Amino acid sequence: MSQAEQQRVMHLRTEYVQSQEIAGKRKMKHRRGLIRRLIAFAVIVGAVCAFMLSSLASQGHQLNSALGQKAVLEKQLSASEQNAAQLKKHIQLLHDNNYIGEIVRRDYLLSKKGEIIFSKSGKSEH
After folding, report:
1. What would the mean pLDDT of 64-77 be, rounded to a whole number?
2. Domain span holding position 97
3. What is the tally of structural domains in the chain?
4. Residue 98 included in any domain
5. pTM beyond cutoff 0.85
6. Kind plus residue range of the DSSP H or E element containing 21
């Protein structure tokens, strides 16, 4: 528009126009505040989600580590139980007089009355 046309258009300053301008300004102010609140809320929600995801990943790593450690400990437990069973069997054999006599004859070359022991060169097998 040219300047001549701008001068011909006159702005009305009635109460209605002023109230509409004030209402429009309030609405824009309210809208800016709403957008700011929504952005702040989104940032907070994003931070909480990031924290939860990092904590979930950390717990998953700890769980995998604990499961690996559990498997190792279970293997050790089964080996210890087998060893304990063998030791109990050996203890029971050591309570048997015949077994002790056999060991004494074999390792220390002791004999019963009337028994002759022939030793082989080298170590005997158990």
Report:
1. 97
2. 14-108
3. 1
4. yes
5. no
6. helix 15-94
